[in-house]
Amino acid sequence: MIQISESAAGQISRLKSEDPKAQTDSFLRVKVVAGGCSGMSYKLEFDQALSDQDKLFEQHGTKVVVDKKSLLYVAGMTLDFEGGLNGKGFVFSNPNASKTCGCGSSFGV
Prior knowledge:
Distance between the termini: 18 Å
Helix content: 10-25%
Number of helices: 2
Largest sheet: 6 strands, mixed
CATH architecture: Sandwich
CATH topology: Hypothetical Protein Aq_1857, Chain: A
CATH superfamily: HesB-like domain
């Protein structure tokens, strides 16, 4: 299961409304890809194509989809969004990550 905070859901909605490629039926796809200073990185993009291998999560009116392979690395994760004086961005609270980089966008297991 993936948890989506209210602030993350609000930011996803804002970004979706500003993205000319995103449509009303688009959802946020969360992927884990090789790379980053800790070995793996999160990739976020709007998508409309749902496959049989995808898992759909919906909270606060926001849909997030994770492919089967990525779900192994992000199961139990909470997707949050923080804004403030030190910058803003999505925050990945991933219980599967044994190490993370300073910026929080890559991790290792």
